[in-house]
Design goal:
Layout (H helix, E strand, L loop, with lengths): L1 H15 L7 E3 L6 E10 L2 E4 L9 E10 L3 E10 L4 E22 L5 E10 L8 E11 L7 E3 L4 E2 L3 E4 L3 E11 L2 E10 L11 E8 L4 E10 L5 E9 L5
Parallel strand pairs: 7-13
Antiparallel strand pairs: 1-9, 2-16, 3-4, 4-5, 5-11, 6-7, 6-8, 6-10, 6-14, 12-13, 14-15, 15-16
């Protein structure tokens, strides 16, 4: 009886173990994977060669912009460096809102001016905001350890943003009314990132090689200030198709 119970327990243990085909991988599982460990912070840019063939596949980048209107603003992104590398993404309907305000002020010479301020934003900032446009877009689809990806999931070779920089421009319209000089102020507020902060995430990748398609992942996190830390990455040693 005891032998039968032990046999039953072993059978249950084997049957509960994940048995993935090459067409699927689990995030964090290094079985059958070519793994690289780095543990580095990305302050400017960093390139990853997933399969160590001497060709960079993915680039992380950080760009900082300074303007008199916005001040300091930065954007952080990752991008496949060729069409044979793709990222696991979600397709979304990206809504841009707009609101308008007319502001009267004076310039540095104490002369009257009018500022026609149009603001575009990724969220409804004021009650009077209206929908300006709705477009299809792709954002990263971060996963947790143990989650599964397959060849049937959605991948795209596109730049995706962790954070996007705000921007603004101002210029005279050429219109003057009773001594009041009119200006157009156009502002873009892009701070609607949904990427999780201060938590390790897995980014899925698909690499089309001469031998076939390989699946992989990058383990990384982003802090509240947009700093990216890359822990490690992995790609299948053999093809998934």
């Amino acid at each position: 009886m005891r032998i039968l119970l032990i046999f039953f327990g072993i059978t249950m243990l084997v049957s509960c173990k994940k048995d993935l085909s090459p067409a699927a991988i689990a995030f964090g599982d290094e079985t059958g994977m070519l793994v690289n460990y780095w543990g580095l912070d990305v302050y400017d840019s960093f390139e990853i060669d997933l399969d160590e063939d001497g060709i960079s596949d993915i680039q992380f980048g950080r760009t900082t912009k300074i303007s008199d209107i916005i001040g300091l603003s930065s954007e952080v992104w990752m991008e496949p460096m060729h069409a044979n590398c793709e990222l696991l993404v979600q397709e979304i309907q990206d809504t841009t809102f707009m609101h308008y305000a007319l502001q009267y002020n004076t310039n540095q010479y104490n002369e009257p001016i009018a500022i026609q301020a149009t603001t575009y934003s990724c969220s409804r900032e004021v009650q009077s905001s209206t929908v300006h446009s709705v477009e299809e877009d792709f954002i990263l689809d971060p996963k947790s350890k143990g989650d599964i990806i397959t060849l049937k999931d959605s991948y795209r070779s596109v730049r995706t943003y962790f954070t996007e920089a705000d921007s603004a421009s101002i210029a005279q319209t050429g219109f003057v009314d009773q001594g009041v000089v009119y200006y157009d102020l156009i502002t873009y507020h892009n701070g609607c990132s949904t990427f999780p902060k201060d938590a390790w995430q897995y980014i899925g990748v698909k690499l089309n090689t001469l031998d076939g398609v390989k699946l992989g992942w990058i383990r990384m996190k982003m802090d509240n200030y947009g700093k990216i830390t890359i822990n490690n990455w992995a790609i299948q040693s053999s093809t998934a198709d």
